[in-house]
Amino acid sequence: MILMNRRLVVAGLVLAAAPALAQPAPRPAQAPAPADPVAALRAFYAKPGRASVNPYLTPRLRRLYTEQQARSRRSGDVMPGLDFGFACGCQDSDDDYHTRNVYRLVSRDERKAKVAVTLKVFASQPETQVITFDMALENGRWLIDDVSGAGDPGWVLSQLLQMRE
């Protein structure tokens, strides 16, 4: 008799838990997407140095970047047109140069933004340079759509990535 009651209790518990078991598992919490383009660029500059830039690029710019990397691997040479780091417009910098960056929102609408980043690649030098990021809001995330440097000579990343030897 006791055995029968335990079976009924266990069966009742299983039936009671069945709706909860049928529910999909909760999704793991994801970091919220940056709410503004400046926050997205701060996240870009805060990434580890060797981390891929791909998650921060629009699909168009990511495609150009990937195609240029493939051409570079095939030729066994550096990427034609891009022999410097586009994030700093430099070939060499202090490891922590990005901690000195000054961000300025130049323009913004509901889908596009332009952010100027003034950076100083070496703390010991007085010179600064301005890198301008064209940002696009895609699937709720601000992504880098193009980058340009105002130096002499000026440059535009998407144009450099399309250069061929």
TrEMBL record:
Leader peptide range in chain numbering: 1-22
Pfam families: DUF3828 (PF12883)
Residue ranges occupied by any DUF3828 domain in the UniProt entry: 53-148
Keyword set, alphabetical order: Signal
Top-level taxon of the source organism: Bacteria
The name this protein goes by in its record: DUF3828 domain-containing protein
